[in-house]
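Q: Could you fold this chain for me?
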Amino acid sequence: MSLRRALHFVFKVGDRTKTATFYRDVLGMKILRHEEFEEGCKATCNGPYDGKWSKTMVGFGPEDDHFVAELTYNYGVGEYQLGNDFLGLTLQSSQAVSNAKRLGWPLTEVGEALYLTHAPGGYPFYLVDKEQPSSDPVQKVCLGVSDLQRSTRYWTTLLGMKVMEKNEEKKTVLMGFADTQCKLELYDNSGTVDHGTAFGRIAFSCPREQLPGLEALMKNENQKILTPLVSLDTPGKSTVEVVILSDPDGHEICFVGDKAFRELSKVDPEGKELLNKAMAEDKSDEWFAKNNRQKAAA
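A: Sure. Below is the predicted structure, expressed as C-alpha cells.
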C-alpha cells in the first residue's frame, strides 16, 4: 500500500473567473494544466452531466508530489448545492493568509494561527498561519461520515490506509498512505451524510496492476462500485485506467493507474494561457443575461 498516493480532490465550480482568483491570487496556487471536453466523462468526473465541460488542475507544485485541486466546470451550470460531506481542506501558508487580508477575502479566525475561508461556491478551506513549507503545503482533506468506526474500517481494511491519529473528543480519525502525503480526516457527523449536488471526489493512484484486484475485492465485500475498470482518454495526452468506488456514506473515490497518470499529469506550461483563453471565449454568462435567463442551479 506504500505505493499508493493521494492525488487530488474534485470540486464542481459555477464561476471559473472568481474560482481562478481564489486559487491563484488568494491561496497562491499555480495552474498546472487545463483541458476542455465536448461531452461528459465516462467516469462522471464532471458529475452527472453530458455536455461541454472543462478540467483545471491547480496546486502548489507538480502533481507527482503535491495534492492538488481538480476544478470541473460544466458550461451552463452556475451553482451547486452544498451538503455536509466535504468539511474542509487544510493548508499551511502565512502568505495565503496575507493575500486574503490584502484582497479583502473574508477570513474568520477559528483557532491559534488558524483561519477559515471559503472558495467560491462555499467550499471551506482552513489556512494555517505559518510559513509555507518547502514540501506540499496541503495537509489534509476532511470528510463527514455517519459511522466513524464503520468508515475507518472501510478505508483501512479495504483501501489500505493506516490510522495516524484518533481524537475521540473531536470525533475524528486521521489516516493516510504515507506520512509525507496529504492526509484524509474523517469526522463523525452523528447523522446522515448529505452530498447535495456539489459532491466531490477524492482521487488516489496505485500501480495499474492493482486495479483489477481492487475492483474484485470490492465485489467480494459487496461494496459499491460506481464505475468498473475503464479507460479514459484526454485529447493529445495519455490514456489512464480508473476504478470509481463509493464508501459506506457515498463518498466517491477514484483509483487510477499510477504510471499513465504521471504521464498525463505533467505540468503544462501553457495551462494558464489555456484557462485564460477558455474563460475569455466563454460567452455563456453574456448569453444568459441577454436572454433574461439564469444559469441552471444544480
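A (continued): The mean pLDDT is 94.
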